[in-house]
Specification:
The protein is of the alpha+beta class and 300 residues long. It has a single domain (36-300), classed as 2-Layer Sandwich (Beta-Lactamase). The protein is 44% helix and 18% strand. The protein has helices at 2-69, 72-75, 85-96, 123-129, 180-188, 228-249, 259-269, and strands spanning 100-107, 112-117, 137-142, 152-157, 163-169, 192-193, 197-198, 205-212, 219-226. Strands 1, 2, 3, 4, 5, 6, 7, 8 and 9 form a nine-stranded antiparallel sheet that branches. A hairpin with a 5-residue loop joins β4 (152-157) and β5 (163-169). It is elongated.
C-alpha cells in the first residue's frame, strides 16, 4: 500500500515539475521574442536616424553644387588668381554649408582652385597642412606653367581674409584632370556623387559631389563632405544602441546571453561605417548622378 501511494505521489510531483518547466519555457520564449522585436525596432530607428542625417547633408550639397556650376565667377574663365572673385564665392559656400570640408573647381588646362574651412579640421590635420592656429581658411591654387608643370600655392588667411602665410610647393603632384571626380563628371556631363574615398591632401574619408561647369570654360566644380566627423556621430549612436540593448535584455534581472543580445551585436556590427572608406573610384556606392543605391531619389 505504501509503495502504491509513493508511486502516485512521485507521478503527481513529476507532472507538476514538468508542467512548471513547460510554463517557464513558454514564458522565457515569449520574453525572448518580445525583447528581440524591441531590440530590432530600436536598431532600425537608430540606423535610420544616422542614415537620414547623411542623406540630408548630401542633398544640401547637391543643390549648392548645381548653383556653383552655373556661376560666371567660376564658369566663364579658367584663369584663377590669389585675388580671384571665385575665392569669395567658395568661402560663401562654405559658410552656407559648414558641414563641407572644402569646395573646389578644376579646369581642362590644369588650373585648380580650392578653399577649405579650417574650423572643420583637427590639430593633426592642421599639422599636415602646416597651418597656424590663427588660420581660418586654406586656399590651394594651381596655375599651369608654360612647360606644363603644375606647382601648388598654399595660402592661409584669417577670418577677415588677410593673408597669414604662403607656401609654394613646386612638385606637389596633383593634377585635377586625372582625378576620378573630374574624369567621371566630364565623361558623364552631369552631376555625380562619388563613393567614399580618401582625399588627396588630408587623407580623410570623404564623399564628393561634382558637376560640370555650364559656361565658357571647361571644367568641374566639386564639394567634399568629410566622413570622419560623421563617423563620430554613428559611433555615438552605436554606443547608445549597445547600452539600450543591454537595458532591454537585463531589466534588473540576470539572464544568460539571448538572441536579443545577438541581434544587438549583429546590428551594431552591420551598421554603416563610413570610417572605412574605399579607394577613390570604388563601387561600394554607385557613381551615378544620385543615391539610388542607398535608397535615395535621384536629384532633380
Amino acid at each position: 500500500m505504501f509503495g502504491f501511494r509513493a508511486t502516485i505521489t512521485c507521478a503527481v510531483m513529476a507532472f507538476i515539475v514538468a508542467l512548471a518547466a513547460l510554463l517557464i519555457l513558454i514564458q522565457t520564449r515569449t520574453f525572448n521574442l518580445t525583447t528581440e522585436q524591441a531590440a530590432s525596432a530600436y536598431m532600425d530607428a537608430a540606423s535610420a536616424k544616422s542614415f537620414g542625417r547623411l542623406q540630408s547633408q548630401v542633398a544640401e550639397i547637391v543643390t549648392l553644387v548645381r548653383v556653383l556650376s552655373a556661376s560666371p565667377n567660376l564658369a566663364d574663365s579658367d584663369e584663377r588668381t590669389e585675388t580671384d572673385r571665385g575665392i569669395a564665392l567658395l568661402k560663401a559656400a562654405l559658410h552656407a554649408l559648414p558641414q563641407m570640408d572644402s569646395v573646389y573647381v578644376g579646369y581642362d588646362n590644369g588650373s585648380w582652385l580650392q578653399v577649405r574651412n579650417l574650423d572643420q579640421v583637427n590639430n593633426e590635420q592642421r599639422e599636415r597642412l602646416r597651418a597656424s592656429p590663427e588660420a581660418a581658411f586654406n586656399i590651394h591654387l594651381i596655375r599651369p606653367t608654360p612647360t606644363g608643370a603644375l606647382p601648388l600655392r598654399r595660402i592661409f588667411q584669417d577670418r577677415l581674409g588677410d593673408q597669414l602665410e604662403q607656401l609654394d610647393l613646386w612638385k606637389y603632384g596633383y593634377d585635377a584632370r586625372k582625378r576620378s571626380w573630374y574624369r567621371d563628371t566630364m565623361r558623364a556631363d552631369r552631376l555625380l556623387i562619388s563613393s567614399p574615398y580618401l582625399s588627396f591632401t588630408m587623407a580623410t574619408p570623404v564623399i564628393t559631389v561634382s558637376a560640370p561647369l555650364r559656361g565658357a570654360a571647361r571644367g568641374v566644380v566639386a564639394a567634399d563632405l568629410k566622413l570622419d566627423t560623421f563617423s563620430d556621430f554613428v559611433n555615438e549612436q552605436r554606443t547608445r544602441r549597445a547600452w539600450d540593448c543591454f537595458d532591454i535584455r537585463f531589466r534588473g534581472r540576470a539572464h544568460r546571453p539571448s538572441r536579443a543580445q545577438a541581434i544587438c551585436r549583429q546590428r551594431n556590427d552591420a551598421s554603416f561605417r563610413p570610417e572605412t572608406p574605399q579607394r577613390q573610384g570604388a563601387r561600394s556606392w554607385p557613381r551615378s548622378d544620385g543615391l539610388e543605391g542607398m535608397g535615395w531619389r535621384r536629384p532633380l
